[in-house]
Amino acid sequence: KSVGNGTLTMFRPEMDARYVAEQRLKADLRTAIEQGDLTVVYQPMYRPDGSEMECCEALVRWSHPERGFIGPNIFIPMAESMGLISEITRFVLDRACADCVSWQNEMSVSVNLSIHDLRGGKIVALVADILERYKLDPTRLHLEVTESCFMDEPVVVSATLGRLRASGVTIAIDDFGTGFSSLSYLDSLPIDIVKIDRAFVRDIGTEPRRLKLLSGIVHLSRELDLKIVIEGVETFEQLELVKKHKFADLVQGYIFSPPIPANAIAELSQKTTSGRRLAGRQNRRD
Ligand code: C2E
Ligand code: MG
Ligand code: MG
Ligand code: MG
């Protein structure tokens, strides 16, 4: 009746059950954030020949007390809708910088930002604070943003990223090619690195046209002086092609390592590398 005269709404019990489950999960997420139950794991990015680990990406994890592992693809959008994403960003940034310093090498660490982090200018001060707290060289912090961040508010987002980059931080565009991207972004945004989405590497061994497409994206990015990371390399065949065609500065994917805890990164990096930075600042565009 409250919806209005003559309106008929069907009630389906599973709708209700799903709603209740979601509300419960949201409440649990709030509690997890408050109690510090989230953790961070890291996935290495290697030179294609595997000789050196130069950087690793911080990825947040939530182990629910009853439901077990819940992926960030589920809870990050929830946190965004609940206005809690900035808490997660703050936590991951802090953890990542602390861990990066503890590794005692020159490796960089890469942290994902949400569109919500880029709307206001707060993120600029937050990043500066954390870098100062851990005495971490700004060039060793990379921030990843997705293309979709630029669609809604391109002017504000570019301005914020510009300020971050001016402070010395390296900016990467994540999942490149999956959004409703415009190639002109590559030239107009303050970015240093392109992370090409795994969708572009998946079939390069079997479909010649996919190989050509990847090749095109890579060449364009290089022409614009951007560093290239290829995500989601899973097989030897894919890696061999990436090496043969010199497609990437760095490779991130299960072929080298899944995301692992901070102490495991320390051990791995001792085996392979003293750690050197990906983003040479010498030829960046300002
Ligand atoms: P992303 O930033 O593109 O991160 C890469 C995702 O691909 C990770 O999933 C990683 O585990 C997965 N991956 C890495 N190598 C491979 C591979 O070889 N094959 C396949 N199939 N997958 C691979 P994860 O950790 O589940 O994260 C999913 C997404 O959630 C991330 O995508 C990112 O958008 C978001 N996310 C994760 N952590 C954070 C965070 O701290 N803050 C924010 N704002 N978003 C986060
Ligand atoms: Mg990422
Ligand atoms: Mg990605
Ligand atoms: Mg992704």
Automatic annotation (TrEMBL):
Domain EAL stretches: 22-273
Domain of life: Bacteria
Protein name listed in UniProt: EAL domain-containing protein
Organism per entry: Aliirhizobium smilacinae
Shown segment, full-protein numbering: 476 to 761 of 773
